[in-house]
Design a protein that fits this description.
- It contains 10 helices and 19 strands.
- The radius of gyration is 25 Å and the shape is globular.
- It folds into 2 domains: 228 residues, P-loop containing nucleotide triphosphate hydrolases (Rossmann fold, 3-Layer(aba) Sandwich); 106 residues, RNA polymerase II/Efflux pump adaptor protein, barrel-sandwich hybrid domain (OB fold (Dihydrolipoamide Acetyltransferase, E2P), Beta Barrel), CATH 2.40.50.100.
- The strands form 4 sheets. It has a 6-stranded mixed sheet with strand order 6-7-8-3-9-10, with helices on both faces. It has a 5-stranded antiparallel sheet with strand order 15-19-16-17-18. Strands 2-1-4-5 form a 4-stranded antiparallel sheet.
- Helices cover 28% and strands 32% of the residues.
- It starts with a strand and ends in a 5-residue tail after the last strand.
- By secondary structure, it is of the alpha+beta class.
- Bound molecules: adenosine-5'-diphosphate.
- Adenosine-5'-diphosphate (ADP) binds next to α1.
- Keywords: ATP-binding, Nucleotide-binding, Transport.
Length: 348
């Protein structure tokens, strides 16, 4: 059951800029596809268009090859989970999970059996009699998943499902969703602004910015070959250096990056350098060739197991380098020190 979106546009006010602008993508069958982007990028609107909760001005939505663009939400047979649990507070967990089945007037025994199955699937067998108010945030969200899955949806649409939870529960539920997906194999679309979440649990990523698709591909494509400075900095906080092509390399001041640029000799290009792709060394090793280059440590900031080093290159460019704490302690540098910086990988 793949999801295909063709040239979708949704404008909330006439003449205003569209929330979703000419978006096309393909969410492959059986995979988790993330819609990733900053707040306001149009991710939720896109998901709501696919669910049938919004109507597009232009474009089509195909689920499993069937054009659903003009079908109401009940006829699309999609499971939806939102950030705010949207559970019925006056109903028990069992009644919440049974809701969609009762709406569809399924026989009582079948409903009960399906609810039991769903409670087992989300590992809440013991809590069927409780009300949502008696559950933790993570448990409530698992009930929301059980309710969405009970109707045997063709696809699962998730809008920041872990957004309201604290970091630890979020990480637990991420693992849980991964396992759930392995056991159901459902085509899943996940809206998230968290690049770590997208890279960790999805097989396909659609990066959105200003209502448009900035890039789509596998997590590796997005991370290793960002299509624009926006994608490079949004995913993994790459340093963006402006340089030009010189003898098959990218020259940034005196730094020559060994990346094969597609551009012609002399042309201006952006090079992207990940914070963990720069190796710092204290000693001046009189290196041959253009790299390593010398830089000055401008600022140090400790972040958990890492130290962020803000380096000033001779070109005047600033580069943020991320050094594991143990490596940093061995390096023994302080602010104002000169260091050698060996750029291990860069992309253009
Ligand atoms: P995201 O999910 O990426 O944060 P949204 O899809 O929620 O982005 O919003 C995209 C844009 O559309 C924003 O500028 C938002 O203000 C606007 N928007 C979303 N829903 C509505 C609505 N119901 N009415 C008017 N504008 C809306």
């Amino acid at each position: 059951m793949s999801i295909i979106v063709e040239q979708l546009t949704r404008r909330f006010s006439p003449g205003g800029s569209p929330a979703v602008a000419d978006v096309s993508f393909h969410a492959p069958k059986g995979a988790i596809t993330s819609l990733l982007g900053p707040s306001g990028a149009g991710k939720s609107t896109l998901l709501r268009l696919i669910a049938g909760l919004e109507v597009p001005d232009v474009g089509r939505v195909l689920i499993d090859g069937v054009d659903c663009t003009s079908l109401p939400v009940q006829q699309r047979n999609v499971g939806v989970v939102f950030q705010s649990y949207a559970l019925f507070r006056h109903m028990t967990v069992r009644e919440n999970i049974a809701f969609g089945l009762n709406v569809r007037k399924q026989p009582r025994e079948e409903v009960e059996a399906r609810v039991d199955e769903m409670l087992r699937l989300v590992q809440l067998e013991a809590l069927g009699g409780r009300h949502p108010g008696q559950l933790s945030g993570g448990q409530r969200q698992r009930v929301a998943f059980a309710r969405a899955l009970a109707i045997r949806p063709r696809v699962l649409l998730l809008d920041e499902p872990f957004g309201a939870l604290d970091t630890r529960v979020r990480e637990e539920l991420r693992e849980w969703l991964h396992a759930l997906h392995e056991s159901t194999g459902l085509t899943t679309l996940l809206v998230t602004h968290d690049q770590q979440e997208a890279l960790e649990i999805s097989q396909h990523v659609v990066v959105m910015s200003d209502g448009r698709v900035a890039q789509s591909g596998s997590p590796e494509d997005i991370y290793d070959r960002p299509a624009s400075p926006f994608v490079a900095s949004f995913i993994g906080g790459a340093n963006i250096l402006r340089g030009h092509v010189q003898e098959g390399r990218v020259a940034v001041g005196s730094l020559a990056l060994a990346v094969p640029p597609a551009a012609r000799e002399g042309e201006a290009v952006h090079a992207f350098v990940r914070p963990h792709d720069v190796k710092l060394a204290r000693m001046v090793v009189g290196g041959r060739g253009p790299s390593p280059v010398l830089g000055t440590v401008e600022r140090l900031k400790s972040v958990g197991g890492f130290v962020k080093v803000l380096l000033r290159l001779p070109s005047g460019d600033e580069v943020t380098v991320q050094v594991p704490r143990t490596e940093f302690d061995e390096l023994g540098v302080t602010e104002g020190d000169a260091v050698h910086a060996d750029v291990r990988t860069a992309t253009v």
